[in-house]
Automatic annotation (TrEMBL):
Pfam families: HTH_3 (PF01381), Peptidase_S24 (PF00717). Signal peptide: none annotated. PROSITE patterns: HTH_CROC1 (PS50943). Gene3D superfamilies: lambda repressor-like DNA-binding domains, Umud Fragment, subunit A. SUPFAM superfamilies: lambda repressor-like DNA-binding domains, LexA/Signal peptidase. Residues 7-62 form the HTH cro/C1-type domain. This is Helix-turn-helix transcriptional regulator. Transmembrane segments: none annotated. It comes from Pseudomonas cavernicola. Keywords: DNA-binding, Transcription, Transcription regulation.
Length: 222
């Protein structure tokens, strides 16, 4: 079996659409089509491991056909049927004045129960995991905590916390609050407003700030 045939088998067995595979691997739909057809002769390591995570097949088997198709599963270990692997990136979202990510890499993923995602009305292909940096969102979000971002939820809602892409390219984690006087306030949860002042912003200006997605879960140390 050729590599493109193994890839086609893995994608078909996963039950996922090409678009879902492309998003999980961080590539265009056309790239997945080329992997399946054999038109593309190269497959970058990060794409290979992302494809393995998205389909549940072993990267070594996908690449060269060696070994088992799937990892032997220990009794009681998470199964793809019950758990979804959400891609985890090295990107940081600043809970401070803003964090500029010069280089972002896929670091693997975090596993979430599918029934929990369903209860939360979350779709795994719209989700990603990043890290918090800074103290402006304490006590809600502490520095270093892991954040689950719903990239499909980009319409600002008053009182919700979002990952924002600033015009200068920095990513910040802030709460958006609609002002009674009109417009919005980009707010930090930290009560030290000298260090972390609120930012009033007009209705028009908020459209200039890219909303990456809403923060729907956070996890960290106890």
């Amino acid at each position: 079996m050729e590599r493109h045939e193994r890839i086609a088998k893995a994608i078909a067995a996963s039950g996922k659409k090409k678009g879902e595979i492309a998003k999980a691997c961080g590539v265009a739909n056309s790239a997945v089509t080329q992997w399946i057809s054999g038109e593309s002769k190269s497959l970058r390591p990060e794409n290979l491991y992302a494809l393995a995570a998205a389909t549940g097949f072993r990267a070594e088997w996908l690449a060269i056909g060696a070994g088992l198709e799937h990892e032997e599963q220990e009794p009681g270990s998470p199964s793809e049927k019950d758990y979804a692997l959400i891609p985890q990136y090295t990107a940081k979202g600043s809970a401070g004045s803003g964090y500029h990510n010069d280089h972002v890499e896929l670091k693997g993923g975090l596993v979430f129960k599918r029934d929990w995602l369903k209860r939360m009305s979350l779709k795994e292909t719209n989700l990603s995991v990043i890290y918090a940096d800074g103290q402006s969102m304490e006590p809600t979000i502490a520095e270093g905590e892991v954040l689950l971002v719903d990239e499909a939820d980009t319409e600002p809602k008053s009182g919700k916390v979002y990952a924002l892409l600033r015009p200068n390219g920095e990513v910040s984690i802030k709460r958006l609050v609609q002002s009674f006087a009109g417009g919005w306030v980009i707010s930090s949860d930290n009560l030290d407003k000298r260090a972390y002042p609120d930012e009033p912003i007009s209705e028009d200006a908020i459209q200039q700030i890219g909303v990456i997605g809403r923060i729907v879960w956070r996890g960290g140390g106890m």
